[in-house]
């Protein structure tokens, strides 16, 4: 994401947690993310609880950096990235947000080169994160997703064929406790899910439709003590089920977790030795 710095770079500091979507005021998050154009790196002066009155549309080449302080966005509208590129969202706590559109709380729509890193997302209406309408080159890393029914959706719907070009990477994320389904749900195209921790689930972890392709690599799936142990889910009688490509590579399974692979792949459980330690990233969230 080197395009976010360099010539013309602007450092903008948020000092005011208020929000006015009609007439954005200087020193607020909306002014820095939506009004100022060019390469803008946004930081915060102090701990903040920001209640957005309307969805915050983030401009291209914007970085929202919540490090050093506890920055919360919640209790109303949330973030929206639409037809934009080169955006970083780092170390923000997003929770109790209301859906901006059916199925969408934090929306990435027709975007490219987006990095969502080291954030905490929980307890929002419908899903936590949607990546849709031909978005590509999206990385979702080091985030903590918890306390949510529908977690992540990749792809607009079964009829939106532009999502066939979607490419999304999930790496080093923590899912749980109390996540139910869609971690993620994939329409049409490809997702690489690697080195994530799945701490239980209620229905399933990953599903898809319209011939999705998934590479699940080096994840740790810890099944719940009771209920569903299967990681994947397939709708009975789905006409595109034979086109799915779900592959498991060096995944680890505990508490009876299982992964139904497709296209002739073989799922081999990894035995975790008692003296094997995993280096977990401290999210400080």
Automatic annotation (TrEMBL):
<dbReference type="InterPro" id="IPR012334">
    <property type="entry name" value="Pectin_lyas_fold"/>
</dbReference>
<dbReference type="InterPro" id="IPR045032">
    <property type="entry name" value="PEL"/>
</dbReference>
<comment type="similarity">
    <text>Belongs to the polysaccharide lyase 1 family.</text>
</comment>
<dbReference type="Pfam" id="PF00544">
    <property type="entry name" value="Pectate_lyase_4"/>
</dbReference>
<dbReference type="InterPro" id="IPR011050">
    <property type="entry name" value="Pectin_lyase_fold/virulence"/>
</dbReference>
<keyword id="KW-0479">Metal-binding</keyword>
<keyword id="KW-0456">Lyase</keyword>
<dbReference type="GO" id="GO:0046872">
    <property type="term" value="F:metal ion binding"/>
</dbReference>
<dbReference type="GO" id="GO:0045490">
    <property type="term" value="P:pectin catabolic process"/>
</dbReference>
<dbReference type="GO" id="GO:0030570">
    <property type="term" value="F:pectate lyase activity"/>
</dbReference>
<keyword id="KW-0964">Secreted</keyword>
<feature type="domain" description="Pectate lyase">
    <location>
        <begin position="47"/>
        <end position="227"/>
    </location>
</feature>
<protein>
    <recommendedName>
        <fullName>Pectate lyase</fullName>
        <ecNumber>4.2.2.2</ecNumber>
    </recommendedName>
</protein>
<keyword id="KW-0134">Cell wall</keyword>
<comment type="pathway">
    <text>Glycan metabolism; pectin degradation; 2-dehydro-3-deoxy-D-gluconate from pectin: step 2/5.</text>
</comment>
<dbReference type="InterPro" id="IPR018082">
    <property type="entry name" value="AmbAllergen"/>
</dbReference>
<keyword id="KW-0732">Signal</keyword>
<dbReference type="InterPro" id="IPR002022">
    <property type="entry name" value="Pec_lyase"/>
</dbReference>
<keyword id="KW-0106">Calcium</keyword>
């Amino acid at each position: 994401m080197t395009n976010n710095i360099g010539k013309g770079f602007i450092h903008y500091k948020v000092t005011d947690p208020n929000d006015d979507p009609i007439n954005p005021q200087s020193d607020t998050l909306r002014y820095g993310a939506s009004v100022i154009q060019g390469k803008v790196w946004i930081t915060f002066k102090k701990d903040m609880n920001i209640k957005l009155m309307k969805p915050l549309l983030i401009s291209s080449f914007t970085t929202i950096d919540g490090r050093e302080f506890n920055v919360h966005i919640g209790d109303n509208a949330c973030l929206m990235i639409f037809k934009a590129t080169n955006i970083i969202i780092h170390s923000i706590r997003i929770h109790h947000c209301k859906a901006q559109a059916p199925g969408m709380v934090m929306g990435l729509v027709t975007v490219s080169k987006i990095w969502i890193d080291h954030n905490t997302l929980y307890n929002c209406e419908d899903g936590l994160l949607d990546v849709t309408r031909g978005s590509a080159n999206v990385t979702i890393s080091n985030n903590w997703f918890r306390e949510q029914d529908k977690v992540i959706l990749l792809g607009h719907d079964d009829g939106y064929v532009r999502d066939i070009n979607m490419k999304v990477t999930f790496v080093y994320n923590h899912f749980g406790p109390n996540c139910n389904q869609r971690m993620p749900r994939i329409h049409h195209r490809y997702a690489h899910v690697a080195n994530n921790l799945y701490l239980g689930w209620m229905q399933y972890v990953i599903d898809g439709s319209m011939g999705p392709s998934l590479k699940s690599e080096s994840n740790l799936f810890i099944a719940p003590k009771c209920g569903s142990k299967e990681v994947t889910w397939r709708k009975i009688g789905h006409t595109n089920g034979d086109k799915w490509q779900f592959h498991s590579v060096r995944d680890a399974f505990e508490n009876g977790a299982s992964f139904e692979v497709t296209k002739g792949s073989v799922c081999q459980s990894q035995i975790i030795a008692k003296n094997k330690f995993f280096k977990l990233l401290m999210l400080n969230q």
